[in-house]
């Protein structure tokens, strides 16, 4: 119960911070993606099911707080949680390189999804420009934030996970 409450609280905080505080820390209109960090890190530590739940919760909260089409973010974050959960078996406690690589890949996938669904459909097909100016800088900025936020997610997961031996 404590675990579900803390993960839910982290989802609400990530969505609130993403919609309120992150525009103020944006560099050249690029801001880190906190729900991707949260979803990918819990999917890595706990598996696909938890990753999907965290992703859907974060996504639906972003849809509600940010406006727009209901379910747009819920869909991509659910997919991120599901796919990132497959790396659950290669998770090691002492290695931070794997989570950072996974978070970077997930943010890259998120950026490509966002490009295809919001720009490419409207006829803007300059993929290279969007990749260099938006997707890769956002991925780098998200990974920099993940260095610090992953430690918090790891601590919450470690303190709330039951051990039977």
Which properties best describe this structure?
mainly alpha; 165 residues; 0% strand; single chain
Describe the 3D structure:
It is a single chain. With 165 residues, the protein is mainly α. The chain has one domain. Helices cover 73% and strands 0% of the residues. It contains six helices and no strands. Helix 3 runs antiparallel to helix 4 and helix 4 packs antiparallel against helix 5 (97-118). It is globular and about 55 Å long. The protein starts with a helix and ends in a 5-residue tail after the last helix.
Protein topology:
Blueprint: H1 2-20, H2 34-46, H3 48-66, H4 72-84, H5 97-118, H6 127-160
Percent of sequence in beta strands = under 5%
- Please state the average pLDDT score: 91
Radius of gyration: 15 Å
The SSE string, one letter per element, is HHHHHH
Give the CA-based shape.
globular
What structural class do you assign from the helix and strand content? mainly alpha
Q: Which percent bin holds the helix content?
A: over 70%
Low-pLDDT sequence parts: none
Task: Give me the number of helical elements.
Answer: 6
Q: What's the structural domain tally?
A: 1
Q: What distance separates the N and C termini?
A: 21 Å
Q: Sheet with the most strands?
A: none
What's the short story on this structure?
This protein is mainly alpha-helical and 165 residues long. The chain is 73% helix and 0% strand.
């Amino acid at each position: 119960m404590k675990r579900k409450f803390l993960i839910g609280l982290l989802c609400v905080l990530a969505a609130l911070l993403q919609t309120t505080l992150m525009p103020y820390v944006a560099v050249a209109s690029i801001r880190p993606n906190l729900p991707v960090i949260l979803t990918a890190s819990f999917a890595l530590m706990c598996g696909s099911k938890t990753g999907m739940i965290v992703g859907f919760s974060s996504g639906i909260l972003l849809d509600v707080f940010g406006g727009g089409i209901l379910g747009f973010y819920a869909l991509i974050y659910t997919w991120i949680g599901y796919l990132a959960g497959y790396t659950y078996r290669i998770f090691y406690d002492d290695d931070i390189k794997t989570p950072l690589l996974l978070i970077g890949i997930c943010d890259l996938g998120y950026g490509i999804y966002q490009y295809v669904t919001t720009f490419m459909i409207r006829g803007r097909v300059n993929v290279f420009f969007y990749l260099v100016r938006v997707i890769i800088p956002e991925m780098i900025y998200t990974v920099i934030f993940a260095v610090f936020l992953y430690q918090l997610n790891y601590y919450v997961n470690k303190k709330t996970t039951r051990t039977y031996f």
